[in-house]
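ok posting inputs for the threonylcarbamoyladenylate job
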Amino acid sequence: MKNIYSNIFKVNNKNLSKTINYLKKKELVGVPTETVYGLAGNAYSSQSVKKIYLLKKRPYKNPLIVHYYSLKQLKKDVELNDNFFKLYKKFSPGPITFILKKNKNSLLSKMVTANTNTVAVRFPENKILKKILKSLDFPLAIPSANKSSHISPVSAEDVAQEFRGSIKIILNGGLCRIGLESTVVDLTSKPKILRPGLISPAEISKILKIKIKINYNSKIIKAPGMLKRHYSPGIPMKLNQEKAKSNEAFIVFGKKHKKGKNIFNLSYTSSLVEAARNLYKTLRLIKNKNYKMICVCSIPQNGIGLAINDRLNRAAK
Ligand code: TXA
Ligand code: MG
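and the output
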């Protein structure tokens, strides 16, 4: 069998040009971002976008996030508003996705937005991805580079494991700095948070000077991150556990927990940011070790802990 990691390329000028040419030819590539690795394609091309849905086995009704380099480029596709400008100024480029109304003469493929009149947009901060976006005259549709409902990838090797040779280029940008997907905030009407991330509701409230609504289980938006079961290792999980049997994997947090072969500590120093960075990596490691049950201790419900608990709850469904 061909080595599944042979499509991973280190980042240099030659491989960047190769990646850019691939994207121009409407092919897909695996790219690093500061949150999780993504599967990128031309957001203006239905041919390209269709390949993303097929490869991920993603239902067509679940829209994708469009990644931009500049505001100038974005203005062609969506209607901007005051709340957007406030949050953009503070947090972009970075791990935040804005839902905005689509422009009538937008060039975006209808499939990207699942035929709706709203668009999810993000300005990634990762230097490699920024270089790629800057050299293209179209934005990129980039969902997380995993099969629908699986654990999101945080390294180039994770992407290779998900797609086993069916993506020709995966750029290796090392481990993702944040390790959890961006915060999604709907700005099409009264601002609402649809998916928690590193940027917290409190930080967003402070900038917008309003109490922000949280709507993680919207009945209207059935996008993948909103589906009850998602980010799943495919192994039963028990949350808020104080102990685990020796044949069960035990995910813990903080130094009060003892060490052991089956014990996986997300952060000895009780750092929620570090725990977020380690979460998907740990779930994937446990899956690869063939454990049949995962127990997880309780994780503080503040800051990025909200996002960690959100992902754990969905993974355990
Ligand atoms: O950090 C991230 O956002 C990563 C990296 C690769 O940028 N991308 C990512 O994409 O997480 P994906 O496809 O795995 O998740 C897309 C999420 C959905 O769960 C949904 O919440 C939201 O984006 N979304 C996309 N279009 C939307 C729309 N028109 N209305 C509401 N939500 C939308
Ligand atoms: Mg995803």
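notes: The pocket of threonylcarbamoyladenylate (ligand 1) is lined by residues 33, 35-36, 38, 63-65, 95, 97, 99, 113, 116, 118-120, 122, 142-144, 181-182, 184, 194-195, 221, 223-226 (CB under 6 Å). The first helix runs from residue 13 to 24.
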